[in-house]
Amino acid sequence: MMGEAMARDTSKEAVTPPPAAGMGDAALLKELVAHLRDNRTELREEWARRISDADLLTAMTPDEIFSEATAVYDNYVDALETGSVEALQAYARDLSERIIPRGVETHEVLGIVLLLRDVLARSLFEKYRADPDLLNRILDAYEPAANRIAVTVGVSFVQERERVIRQQQEAIRELSTPVLQVRERLLILPIIGVLDAQRARQLTEQLLQAIRANRAKVVVIDITGVPDIDSAVANHMVQLVKASRLMGASVIITGLSSDIARTLVTLGVDLTSMRTVGDLQGGIEEAERQLGYALPALEDLDDELD
Amino acid sequence: MPVPILKQGDFLIATVQSALSDREVLQFQDDLAERVGSFRSRGVILDVTALDMMDSFVSRAFRSMALMAKLKGAETVIVGIQPEVAFALVQLGLTLEGVNTALDLEEGLAFLRSLTRRRTDGR
Question: What is the domain range of residue A107?
Fold first, then answer.
């Protein structure tokens, strides 16, 4: 009950003529923290209720909200007390990591932190209503710290979100450009997803290295999974074809959607250097022809065996 | 250092071993054209595996060497262009149009053999 004693101390001080500003603030903050700790249960419940009322965190069950609310509340009060937001920041990151996959939005996170700020401010109004002067000074101590906490939590959430997005982009980039060897001297490069200039460039480098490593003679690039293409990317494709030729490999492009075909023709991209075939199967057959493989039809094989 | 030009049956093999100065390039051009004539070669392999860069002068010179050899009755294959070089050349718009290319010496020889065989077969 050290805090209570201190609190009584400062309130006595506060009614008597103004104390030294610095000392006063620290003492006020202590009193404030003590108040928040004493009323932990009601304030926490009040906050959880306000969250449900405001239709925030709909992706979570009330029990989950309450347990997270408890943890946030305690961290919040600790941050107020110590003035250090690091623990809270770490907790906010951790929390974000858990709730982002469940579809919790930025406005909800900011919303609940601001709600907590409001709930606590209300309880302070309630407590110090009788003494506007003291209330003012308590708020002076509370508001900057509370704002700082709100900013910290919001920023942590957004940063975590960005980190997840970056990570996913990286994963997509790595996953989506495999260079596969299907036969001696024959590579397949299926491209899935949007091609931008950077990716097209990366693709070119990767393919040229693979041509050398696998001693490829024919490369089939399948762009069935590419939704759209612009003139910069089309030119990259042309460059890719020409660079492959310089290394002694010919490129067959398959799976052009009608949209892409129209775009290429409308843009007037010079496609004379490109060999294109309708689908991947046709592309592989064409490649095998170029490599001198002849696959007899099954019936012919049967005939031969007979 | 002059570029060595070796005779291998019907073919000539020229291996560029280091970056060439402009004068060496011109010298190389003359040497090769002269050898193609004197050996009555049917094919030329230009091996550039050792080059880690090619500027526009060199790439144009190589292209004109290929065209010159063709006028003298020999098909030319440039072999061993490195991935980085290929990428850089294409970005500069130097695509060695009309010149045969192959991955390496072995591929180049195979290509020339298939080409000359076809001709003698009359196919």
Answer: 2-172
